[in-house]
Amino acid sequence: MAKRMDVRKTYKLYIGGKFPRTESGRYYKWNSTKDDEVVNICLGSRKDFRDAVVAARKAFDPWQSRSAYNRGQILYRIGEILEGRRDQFLAELTLQGVPKREATREMNAAIDRLIYYAGWADKYQQLFSSVNPVAQPYFNYSTPEATGVVSIVAPEESSMLGLVTAIAPVIVGGNSCVVLASHSKPLCSISFAEVLQTSDVPPGVVNILTGQRSELLEQFASHMDVNAVSYFGDDSGEIKTVEENASLNVKRVAILPEKDLQKSGAQGPYHILKTQEIKTTWHPMGV
Amino acid sequence: MGQAKTKINFDSDWSYNPAPQATDFIKLQERYGLYINGKFKPSENGRSFHTINPATEEKLAEVSEASEKDVNRAVRSAKEAYEKVWSKISPKERGKYVYRIARLIQERAREFAVIETMDGGKPIRESRDIDIPLAAAHFFYYAGWADKLDYAFPGRKTKPLGVAGQIIPWNFPLLMAAWKIAPAIATGNTVVLKPAETTPLTALKLAEVIQEADLPPGVVNIITGAGETGAHLVNHPKVNKIAFTGSTEVGKIIQKSLAGTGKSYTLELGGKAANIIFEDAAIDQAVEGIINGIFFNQGHVCCAGSRLFVQESIADELLRKLQDRMATLIVGDPLDKNSDIGAINSKDQLEKIKFYEKIGVKEGGSIYQPDCTLPKKGFWYPPTLFTDVSQSHRVVQEEIFGPVLAIQTFRTVDEVIQKANNTPYGLSGGVWTEKGSKYFKVTKAIRAGVIWANTFNKFDPASPFGGYKESGVGREGGISGLSAYVELV
Amino acid sequence: MTVAIKSGVRTVASILDNARSVDQIGAEERVSRLFKRSIKKESKMAALQMALSMIDLTTLEGKDSPGKVKQLCYKAAHLHDKFPGLPSVAAICVYPTMVAVAKNELKGTGIRTASVATGFPSGMTSQDVKLNEVRKVVSDGADEVDMVISRGHFLKGDYQYVYDEIAAVKEACGNTELKVILETGELQTLDKVRRASDIAMEAGADFIKTSTGKVKPAATPPVVLVMLEAIRDYYYRTGRKVGMKPAGGISTAKQAIQYLVMLRETLGKSWLTPDLYRIGASSLANDVLMQIMKQSTGVYQSINYFSID
Question: Distance between CA atoms of B19 and B335, rounded to whole angstroms?
């Protein structure tokens, strides 16, 4: 019997709800640890990042205007879809060199973390808001609001759980984001983009690029239309680059560890708070 | 040309054909058992009662009547499920069960809506667009809290109470079941729930969904019955917490019978809300708010805006607009998508409303009802206004629980605040004004648990609901709704 | 149809003193409730036919020519000859230079000729030019004039100017019916829509109309609701019935029926007539025709079976 030829997958970027190739036309070769199969991954460019920020900015206002309940349902849906496609992700994690048992743990944790954050969508506001008893006859209240467009440098080592850990708290709070995926473990990120696209996540709310940190880090941190930058890692040089460039427009900076993502400290409402602003409003109380 | 002498006529040659909701996909059993420990079984003494469609008086199904033995069995199952299974499951997994129930209700939404309408009489438009989506949302909301309770109460951790005995009314059967069950099980308790005797069917369907969700047996038990069944549940020594929604009269009986038992309880009782329209209100939207306030769900709403206070300077115009709006309300077959007002839930309730109508007229009130042809079979009552009434009239003081609005005028802010608070109830209130500072001031002054400014009858699982004074104690919804079901440690 | 209304007219100042506030969320909720009405079978067929009879079939393009207008006029009088007994549309609406052409083509059909005027669509021209244009279309035989209000003046707060301008145009119209276009998409808030409606009616409008169709958004449901409620209050105050015309953005039969429900439940029986309600649309007619065919045959239709002009 003749051997059946596989139809090999092309890995593209995820921008504005679509899957374009990098405008630069460049690629890098990625070798799986398992077979000799070589995959060409898009080497994302500054211009791709620029386009992604435009898409994220456009998507921001409608996304944050949706009800919290709706955002929660969408995050839950991402979990549902991811659960249904676990086998594909397990296969990719294996190709990326993750042992089977660990891959299963990682998938379970990633799905559960999505469900976890879905549950926060309409609750974190109740934790972080207040009616403030000012000493004058004013009704004074404080509420969190999404900060805007967030650029995210996702964990390098943990591709699946790392991605969910980075993205979920940002979008559940109403922000949109542009993500630089792991360079060494890029497969899951693009497959995850497919999951997002089929989960009612509006185009532009999440944008995912593959590429080099060394080339794109400065862009992610310096773009004047980005409101916050989250960096996962512990390289002091990279951290300095991020923090310096962020100062150009006073971005909110979050430097987060990329280890121990399975631990409970890696998730929580305070992670949501990192990309929220607190707005306080006064209104007189009198006839 | 001066003022129009002729009122606008809303009857036209162009009338709406009936637009009946299809019911052919609905499967109802002839008889239902009690849902205890994950299975449906008839009551141990075989007694049952039937439930009818109040719009047609047709029998829908035979439903078991839980005896004292059945109640004991249900509580035992709940207790065992709590001790052996539910208190041991990780909170994260507990949440997932509750999410499943939410999603299943969404999948079977239309079926639930039709059965709710058939069993209780409310228009399909309301059960489809309000009751069922809100019920699913309550499960979805509380599912999310299951593994986050450490954040809900600053400085304290939580512990579930054990077995919750829950008794719910007939006005929002599925929604009330959701309000009770969702926070209880999400926080780790197990439940024995008794739906109202005139509306058991959606609770029994919910039991089917709970089975489908694979919830461990005994975590939720649903036992049908009437007052006696409820009393057994309230008095059962192994129940740790009682939650009751119903009339103030019965609420007081329950509170009394719990005295000295150490059981915690929450009560959500009656109301006679003041809906206040200031002269600077957005008047057309206020009219819509008044209509929603009293005619939503045929007025069978504890937080209904049943006392209207309108500032005298706009009273005539407002009344004219109200009457014009009432002329377009369609009273009819609840399964017709165009019906605005459905059937009264039961013969008893209809008698009660008619009783108050007689009193109101006898007390000297003027009654207004638009022309509407009411169907011959079933229990029906037209939307009704009482003018020329005051705080001293019984129809203004007592809860009628029907589509009857008592209208008074007022002149100053202080006067209306005083009158709004001049009642033993304190569940809800409404304030209509376009001036921001005024509604902050007035909403602060009204002694009620839920105040709607420039709107009415709005509900959300994230928004706490409950009354002051004789309207009850405790809150449902939001973080406040968690307190009812946990002990702070 | 037109009434001299010199007495009992309110001044602009008194209109403003009694200005109505509109709560946007409340208005949207009322709309959503109205749009839940399910109109089926005979009531749907009746609504579809009624909608047809209320259409002002419109062509307002820079590239309009006598040929184009003649074709549109023929379509207006022969909507779908295959289906007997259909009403014809209420009117054709064209630019001033096409009035004579339309009037000639429509002889004997009972269909009225409406013309836009006053520097449509922007209205950014002098009052002399506007009034001359109105007089010209009236003398060319237009049955109805659709004018635009001066939005710049309105948004600046110069309500007296807006009022006076409408009154002057009304005078130039004589016995010809005047529709006043508020261009609600530029007014933006419902409060302003209400205020503009009140001013237009007090100044003599026979119809108030939402839009020119050249600005998005054109007619939207909450805007139409607010205008209908303004018409109702005005009727109760003065006894005079003013007509309503939503224009632009109504392309499906479903939308047209929804607006009829809104009309019926806000203004009742007497407004359900082309004398007091029109729909400004171009492609709506064919969608309504397709729905009528579907109602009578039970089969979904394709545009290939209906004429385009």
Answer: 8
Catalytic site includes residue B65: no
CB A154 within 8 A of CB A180: yes
Q: What architecture is domain B274-453?
A: 3-Layer(aba) Sandwich (3.40)
ipTM for the complex shown: 0.92
Q: How confident is the model at residue B212 (pLDDT cuts 50, 70, 90)?
A: very high
Chain B hits for C43, CB-CB cut-off 8 Å, are 14-17
DSSP B447-476: --SEEEES--S---TTS-B--SGGGEES-B
* Percent of chain B with pLDDT strictly greater than 90: 96
Peptide bond preceding A144 in cis form (omega within 30 of 0): no
Domain ranges for chain B, please list them. Answer: 31-269+469-488, 274-453
Residue of B nearest to C230 (CA): B284
Residue B81, φ and ψ in degrees, nearest 5: -60, -40
**In whole angstroms, what is the distance from residue B396 CA to residue B410 CA?**
15
- Phi, psi for C166 (deg, rounded to 5): -65, -45
Query: Which numeric CATH code is attached to B31-269+469-488?
Result: 3.40.605.10
Closest among B398, B465, B464 to B427, alpha carbons compared:
B465
Quick one: average pLDDT of B247-261? 96
Containing H/E element for A255?
strand A252-256
Contact between B437 and A285 using a beta-carbon 8 Å cutoff: yes
Tell me if C8 is assigned to some domain: no
Active site residue B302: yes
Give the one of B145, B436, B444 whose C-beta lies nearest to A119's C-beta. B145
Amino acid sitting at position A99:
P
Question: Domain of C105?
Answer: 17-293
How many domains, in total, are found in chain C?
A: 1
For residue A282, give how far its alpha carbon lies from the nearest alpha carbon of chain B (Å).
11
The domain A27-277 having CATH identifier 3.40.50.150: the answer here is no
B445: tokens are 């002054």
Q: What is the 3-state secondary structure (H, E, C) of B387-448?
A: ECCCCCCHHHHCCCCCCEEEEEEECCHHHHHHHHHCCCCCCEEEEECCCHHHHHHHHHHCCC
Query: Could you tell me where the beta strands, DSSP code E, fall in chain C?
Result: 55-58, 91-94, 112-116, 144-148, 177-181, 207-209, 243-245, 279-281
Rounded to whole angstroms, the Cα distance separating A268 from A135 reads 34
DSSP secondary structure code for residue A167 in this structure: H
Q: Which CATH number characterizes residue C127's domain?
A: 3.20.20.70
Partners of residue C18 in chain B, C-beta under 8 Å: none
A287 touches A263 (CB < 8 A): no
Which pLDDT score, from 0 to 100, does residue C7 have? 46
Q: In the 3-class helix/strand/coil scheme, how is C161-207 assigned residue by residue?
A: HHHHHHHHHHHHHCCCEEEEECCHHHHCCHHHHHHHHHHHHHCCCCE
Query: Tens digit of pLDDT for each residue in B313-342?
Result: 999 999 999 999 999 999 999 999 999 999
Cα–Cα distance list, B91 to A115, B37, B97 (Å): 13, 21, 10
> What is the reported pLDDT for C6?
46
Contact between B340 and B123 under an 8 Å Cβ cutoff? The reply is yes
